[in-house]
Amino acid sequence: MGVTGPPGPVMDRDEVDRALARLGAEHEAIETSLLALQDHAGRRLLEGAELTGTTKERWVSTEASITLLWAYFDAYTDAFHAAQSIRSRRRWSSREDLVELTELLRGESVTVAGSTTATANMPTLTGGSSKLSHQFSLSGLVDEMNDLYANSLDMVVTSDAVWSALPARIDLLAAELQRTRQLAHSVGVRPGEHPAGDDLERITDTLTELRERVISDPLAYWVRAQGSSAPGGGRPDTTVYDREARALEDVRREIDAVLTVRQDAEARLVKLRDVLSRADRTLAEARTARGEVLAKIAATEVPVVGGPPTVLQEQLSTAAEYRRHAQWHRLSPLLESLEQKAEDELLRARESLTAVTQPLAVRAELRGRLDAYKAKVARHGLAEDPLLIERYDAARRMLWSAPCDLRVAEQAVLRYQHAAAEQFNAPRTQPQGGPEDQRGPGA
């Protein structure tokens, strides 16, 4: 939409013809734009929707703008046709015709009678005046139409952009939500029984409310681009939608975990029973070993061996009940807790067995050391040494008697080792022979 130019002196015929040509092009462009606005899908949706909030307020103003636009365009059309009619009276326009055309084309010769409703709803575009008719030049009228058109188009395009983007995405997410709810119900994830079930209910309510608000007040979900004055400059606000989409993804992951539990539950329960059984057997072995130690080892403090924890067995029974009744959402966290506790219990049982059998291990080490030194003594040819025999027999009696005092037995083994070491390091006496022996045979 262009501008014809400011008023001035009487126009000549060439100026009039050029102005009329511009007016004709302008008229066609304005008419095309208005018809496109009239047929815009967004405008038709706005007309048929039950609007609320910001959108309702702006649509009242926009409807008045569109009504006023057509009134201005009709006045503009009448003025343009009047100018064409004057110019077509004669091939060479007279002075009077040119004066009339100059006033029509450059002066404030266009009177627009607006409706009471349109004028009341468009105070800013009419300078706040309460008059029902206004005088415009053709260029001024084009400026008014440009402003009205830009504001109206912005409202229509913005609403249509939100409606084109958000409801369809909300519907797709709602369909995915429905599938997730069905899957959740099949594995026992229900509202009031599992946090994920409560989340699904909240997401459902939020999406339902969001769709209703988007349909009734699309402008509430529009973020205008900073620094942009073009109609429709900006983007739909998807903050709420994106948040709920992320929440649904979190719920899906939780349900996948529950499904994994359903598939692996039996194998995990079997493994749990095996781990707890090994822990019980290890504790039983530790209790047996403690009795043996108390009977065979003297002057030794042997730690008490605790019994198997009944709590874990009760929780294992509860887990089996959950599996039988397909309560996978409860079984999942219980299995994870039980698996860790069972491993800890097996480790505790092994540590208990190690602590209890420590004295027997010390006695076995002393026995092995004593026999090793006896073999070494034999290799040095000292097996018949009376002192070594005596000390070996003393250490052996202590180590193979019950109860065995490990501290005394260790001292006996050390005495045998020291005596053997002294014999190993003692100088050997060579046998002395007679003169014949020194001379050798045949001397």
What does this structure look like?
The chain is mainly α and 443 residues long. The protein is 73% helix and 4% strand. It is built from 14 helices and six strands. The protein has helices spanning 13-39, 41-48, 53-87, 95-106, 116-121, 138-186, 195-216, 239-296, 310-324, 328-356, 358-379, 386-399, 406-425, 435-439; strands spanning 110-113, 133-136, 222-224, 234-236, 297-298, 404-405. It has a two-stranded antiparallel ribbon. Strands 3-4 form a two-stranded antiparallel ribbon. The chain has a two-stranded parallel sheet with strand order 5-6. Helix 3 packs antiparallel against helix 6. It is rod-shaped. Residues 1-6, 116-120, 123-129 and 430-443 have low confidence and may be disordered.
Short précis:
This protein is mainly alpha-helical and 443 residues long. It has 14 helices and six strands. The model is unreliable at 1-6, 116-120, 123-129 and 430-443 (pLDDT under 50).
Mean of residue pLDDT?
81
**Overall SS class:** mainly alpha
**Which strand order spans the largest sheet, edge to edge or round the barrel?**
1-2
Q: What is the number of E strands?
A: 6
Largest sheet: 2 strands, antiparallel
Roughly what fraction of the amino acids lie in strands? under 5%
The backbone outline, from C-alpha atoms, is: rod-shaped
Helix content: over 70%
Q: What is the radius of gyration computed over CA atoms, rounded to a whole number of angstroms?
A: 53 Å
Unreliable stretches covering 5 or more consecutive residues? 1-6, 116-120, 123-129, 430-443
Encode the helix/strand succession as letters. Answer: HHHHEHEHHEEHEHHHHEHH
Number of helices: 14
Query: Distance between the terminal alpha carbons, to the nearest Å?
Result: 151 Å
